[in-house]
Amino acid sequence: MERTAGPSAPATAPGDPEAARRRAERRAERITAGATELEQRLADLLRAGLAGAEQTGGGPWEETAARMVDAQAPGLASRVRELAAIPSSGPGWPVRLLEECALLHLLDRGWLHRERLPDSLAATVRSRVGLSTSADGPPVRDHWLVLAQYDTADARLTTRRVWLYGAETDRTVLLLSYGAAGRPPELALPVGLALEAEVSAYPDAGRRRVALGRRFAPPEPTRARPRGVTTSRATVRYGEALRDDPWLDSVPVVLDRVVPVPDGDGWQLADADGDTALPLARTTGGQPGLWRLVALSGGAPVTVFGECGHRGFAPLTAWPAGRGTAVPLC
Amino acid sequence: MTRTPAPTDTSAPTPTTVPWPSVVPTGSPPTDATAPPAQPRADTGTGAGTGPESDADTADSPPGADAVAGAGTGAQWAPPAEAGAQPVPGRPPAASGARTSGSGPGGVWEELVTSALLGTDRRTPPGGERGPGAAAVLLDAVAAETVRRRAGLRPARAAGRPDPAPEDPRPPLPEAAARRLTMLLTDRPGTAGGGRRGSAPDLMELLPQWLATANARGFAAPPQTLPALLDAARGRTDLRPAALKFAGPRALWLARLNPDWRFALRATPGGGAAPPGSGAMERARRLWAEGLFAERVALLAALRARDAVGARELLASTWATERAEDRLMFLDSLRTGLEAADEPFLEQALADRSRNVRATAAELLSALPRSALAARMAARAATCVSLDRTRTPPAIVVEAPHECDAGMERDGVVTKPPAGRGERSWWFGQLVEAAPLATWPARLAGRTAEEIVALPVSDGWQGELHAAWCRAAVRQRDGVWARALLGAPTAPDAGGPGAVSLAERAKLLGTLGAAERAEWVAGFIATHGLSEAFQLLGMCGVPWATPLGRAVVDALNIARDAGSYPWSFSGVMGLAERCLDPSEAGRLDGLLAIPDEPEDASPGAGGYWAEAFQRLVTTLRLRAAMAEELRAGS
Asked: How much is the pTM?
């Protein structure tokens, strides 16, 4: 899952540019203070040892998260909140907590020294910290196929992710939209539709997130399918993407000719024409989605779109062998 | 931007090869023997930390930032510096070359984790220094290692694949019908909140009808709907046969992979009905000899339905060695397709060690009017019932048996009555119930069934006698007697607690043809209203015949005008939604308006009635659409 820092407010402030610049400076100073404080908090944790983190519970983290909200760094705040949940996340939690602490530390350092980073990486850091950016990339027109649409919700916000695949540009992009708690976001693009439209990229390094621009025709059902790759190629994609964004949890990938295979307590997607396989991530998609995928396959190769990352492969949509429309798994 | 060397863009950053945590099941060896966890790759160590851009500006800058910038000598992770790493797209892990072990990044990782767990105050991290700065140094190193490990993830070795699912030769469902099925399966009752149903149709209740239609048309289930179908069949046993038939062979393949769906394998022995043909009987014999109890019951029932003699012979072949409770269940399966040729086997079962087996055998024999047992029972029953011609009009006189002798007991008469019943009337009821109904016209001066039922019965025996005749008519499926015992639906005592209870009436209706049944219930509702009609309506065929449907709608309309609340009729309303002919929807439009409330009406009842009728009409329209969707494509 792509982590995000919440809805983006319009980046351009009203009034004269000088006032806007001063506001941006003040906000950067507050974030810097927040990041410095967070660094101290992480250092204290590591000096005392993670083994004790299970006992302390989430209270201190909640407080730190609130401090990050005060510092106007929502990206840092949500990462801190996720840290709080790790000690109760089952076996192996200390290593996961250590990894996430270290990546948070990396983000802090990235912010504190952003002026030394290459432009695109600095943009990624700003976005990860939670500074709103605007989709300023040039408009890209394509026939966009809806690969997946799914919602995640917390107490305040419902986040909808829509993955689109551009047949002509061979690009996979992400649309984000938001709804207030309990209410579905407005934008709805069900899987299996395609629309002729322009999108503009946000300035993050991966340039995967886009905003939807002009639409030239209403979405229509399509039998078009995205091109897929092997499991080996999928892991290489993730590795390559980490070079631009080390905080990336996963990348969107279409796997071609894979078979769901039970493996101990879990499942794999195995290449139909090889002996390699990707483990399925346990959390995303959920059991109903997994069984729909297994039923659709019936032991035969299928095409699967999903998010491939360090937790494994999270299937989101599948296409049967031969003809047949897309089946949402989430 | 100058820090990202362009030529390396095509090469994957592959610092270490680490399987996913979930790739290697705990307690098993690593799936990729050549890439054990935490083993470094030989071709990765050299590039790290010697990036082309390592320079002086790191002197006063924190290493973590350098890691992000990809420039620092202090950071172990610098993807652009991995130019020396071999590109590995498409290369399986087994071919990824030689590796070294020892002091590489893998070992470093273990030490980093240990330091982090214990705390840097107690344990100095590798390559770090003591003191307050140690924690930050540790985090730098861990950040670099984490990204390095993630970037180095490679696919696991594929596990053993299950055999593919068998082909389903049926034609695929039309697209609109497939969408409808998904809607029916995902509807959750009670999502509207509260106890009241509102005007939205209850989709789950329409599933049985949908499945019956789809099965009648012989469509195959869309594979992705199988999990929801199996879940629905698991939760509702009444849905199981139709749901499993529709789900087809792939559902059984799927059920073998998920313990929650084991029931599907039990319900269909040997993975579905064995195809007839050479060897079918041989397979049946093997399953009969080796199968589990439930599999054997299902096998016998399936076989009996298409080959009555074969099923009986199969059962007879092992009868003597079966356990008593199993014998009872097996014997019960002979109910299907019961025929005169079953008599010798059943006669022999009358001598069974188990009382329950004897009773069931006797019951089955008494349903064969020409059987020796039926003749014996007829003789016994006839001696208890006579016609007293001295009275005007003539009356039936009952003289119940004084004892239950050994012969009666052998023929299945249960000696001991239930608590609160006299034993003589208990024995009498069993004799009349088991005697062929043809006994009575002969015994009672050639009168017809109707005339016999109309005769008065002296000394308060009418209830006992008529109830026993009802049971006999149901058991012998005798429409003439059933009609006589039911009487006219408009008779005043038909609605009240007469000699024949509502439950008995419902069973009697079951022996009549569908049209006659509907007509009788329509007449009953027109006279007696809906309050007692639920059970009787349940016996009527779907969709309801036009006169019956109109009788129900008229009665609902009358109930509304009488000012009661609709939920007093929620049972009938629910039936009407599922059973009324969808073409009647147009006639209901007049009922959708909220009527003026009469003074004695329950407050707000009019609005609730309008809502209930709205749901009825919506459901009928939905059923019409469902049927139309399933007509397409065939």
From this structure: 0.73
